[in-house]
Write a structure and sequence with these properties.
Radius of gyration: 12 Å
Strand content: 35-45%
Structural class: mainly beta
Distance between the termini: 24 Å
Order of helices and strands: EEEEEE
Largest sheet: 4 strands, antiparallel
Length: 67
């Protein structure tokens, strides 16, 4: 984490169908996308008003669902 910025706490996680990415729903309302092999953060998705307690992937339509 950056100085002065508290780390986000993951609440839920799932793999993408190809097992290359792990999606993590976070306490701060973001979804983190991590490379499953290297552990590198690929991107953070924003848009939730509150915490993300559930995250899933629909492989048929390449969609992410979260709540």
């Amino acid at each position: 984490a950056s100085p002065g910025v508290p780390p986000t706490q993951p609440l839920a996680a799932c793999f993408t169908p190809d097992d290359k990415t792990v999606l993590g729903g976070n306490e701060d309302g973001t979804i983190s996308c991590w490379n499953a092999t290297t552990g590198k953060l690929l991107r953070k998705l924003e848009g939730h008003v509150g915490r993300v307690g559930c995250v899933a992937v629909n492989p048929k339509y390449a969609q992410i669902a979260s709540a």
